[in-house]
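Handout for the seminar on molecular recognition.
Each group receives one record of this type.
Step one: identify the two inputs.
Step two: read the structure output and locate the region that could contact NAP.
Step three: write two sentences on what you found, then compare them with the reference statements printed after the record.
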Amino acid sequence: MSRADKTWRIGVAGLGTVGGGLLRFLADEPAFAPAGGRAEVVGVSAKSRSRKRDVDISQLAWFDDPVALAASAEIDIFVELIGGSDGPAKAAVETALKHGKPVVTANKALIAEHGRELAALAEVQGVPLLFEAAVMGGVPAVKIVREALVGEDLISIAGILNGTCNYILTEMERAGRDFADVLAEAQRLGYAEADPTMDIGGFDAAHKITILAALAFGGAPDYAAAEIEGLDQIELQDIRLAHDLGYRIKLVASAERIDGGVSVRVHPALAPLDHPLAQANGALNALFIEGRRIGRIFVQGPGAGAGPTAAAVAADIADVMAGAVRPVFQKPAADIQLAPGLAGSQHLRRAYVRLLVRDEPGVIAAVSETLAEENVSIDSFLQKPVHDAGGVPIVLTTHATPEPLLQRAIDRIGALPQVLQPPRMIRIARV
Ligand SMILES: NC(=O)c1ccc[n+]([C@@H]2O[C@H](COP(=O)([O-])OP(=O)(O)OC[C@H]3O[C@@H](n4cnc5c(N)ncnc54)[C@H](OP(=O)(O)O)[C@@H]3O)[C@@H](O)[C@H]2O)c1
């Protein structure tokens, strides 16, 4: 039977936001695959069979155990939409691959933490393992890096990869509200999980940038090497002060190649107000990709949500139906290595530093001298005429400085008797 006539029997494990979205997509778009053929969901698995769902699963085979669905001879493609780096998601994906079934997943934690071994399993069986929906939901970031730019000499990737954090930062600025307040509201509205640690701790964005780094630089995903700083330290006053200086704070995930090593980081960063990263607001995701020949590419769009994410999962299913098989991480699994990490001294950054100091003469001189002694030069200085907790807030920005020098200078400033609180340092994005 030709591909154009084949009915591909799909098993879907996980019927939540994305799984439900996929079932609706396939019901609405029966002829979505350009190579022809039909994709038909035949079996499903979720945690609770009795849960009321807004998709009809009464005609589909039910599996209490997603591993049994993955092993079933009744399916041709296994779609994993449960989530989590380990547990049932990993067991089911491994089982499907071992049974020679193509796998499509939206699970960034699984791919970032176990991508290398799963790629090896897929390769042994000669089946695809696809994860477009794992990064930036509806924005085809994986396809751009893995396929469209496969021949390009990529230098860096940086962007906003977590919509929840972006929503919180946008709301803090728009409504002048504190972090905890906006987070609680986001949880009430369903924009943030009941346990928001993965999002606001920066871990979700780190999973995504780890995957893009592996695809961009031809290595294995190395989540353990990612440097991760979340949003939890960001205060409303930083958002306001950054704005006064012409910047907006974003949670920026970046991967760059420097001297043969690869740096993968997530941290809050200041982006100039007129820069596209600063203008990607609300739950939007945005990404810059920089290459030697292409210069810079910018993409922006919905990083989550049932519709956009289901469309990305469906695109992967269409690729399987078309017969696409390529190495999961650009090279045969045996050849992909972890990239060497980078020493902090190789990171050259500008920074925003907020201090709360005693309202007395000589303070600014003491701060400036300490910075000068550590070879950190000041770019701008802002002193606000506000008295807070018995002190005066001052903010300075620095010129580009190797990070260890910057950190040492900040530690020394924090120890000055005139400085009343630990200094708050936020990097300025390299944009
Ligand atoms: N939500 C998004 O916009 C989005 C975007 C991009 C990527 N993703 C990724 O897509 C995946 C799914 O996310 P989601 O938001 O759809 O999650 P979700 O709404 O929490 O749904 C999870 C689904 O997994 C099922 N499940 C949990 N434990 C299970 C088990 N042991 N066996 C079988 N099924 C089990 C749940 O069953 P019950 O329904 O019975 O509870 C539920 O249907 C995650 O990897 C996530 O990171 C999500």
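Reference statements: The longest strand covers residues 247-258. Residues 108-125 form the longest helix (18 residues).
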